[in-house]
Amino acid sequence: MNPNQLGPERALSVAVIGVGGVGKELIEQLKDIPFPFQIAAVAKSNKMLLFTDGTTCFPVGQWQNALIHSESTKDTHLGVLDALRPLVKAGGRKVVLVDNTSSQDVANSYPDYLNAGVNIVTPNKKAFSGDLQLYKRISQGETTGGVPRGVFYNESTVGAGLPIISTLKDLINTGDKVTKIEGVFSGTLSYIFNEYSKGQEGGPSFSSIVQVAKDNGYTEPHPGDDLNGADVARKLTILSRMIPELRDRLPNGHEDVKPTSLVPEALKTANAEEFMRRLPDFDSELAKRRDEAAKRGNVLRYVGVIEVASGKIEAKLEEYPKTHAFATSLQGSDNIIMFHTERYGARPLLIQGAGAGNAVTAMGVMSDLLKLF
Ligand SMILES: NC(=O)C1=CN([C@@H]2O[C@H](COP(=O)(O)OP(=O)(O)OC[C@H]3O[C@@H](n4cnc5c(N)ncnc54)[C@H](OP(=O)(O)O)[C@@H]3O)[C@@H](O)[C@H]2O)C=CC1
Ligand SMILES: N[C@@H](CC=O)C(=O)O
Ligand code: NA
Question: Where is the Homoserine dehydrogenase catalytic domain (predicted)?
Answer without folding.
Answer: 163-370
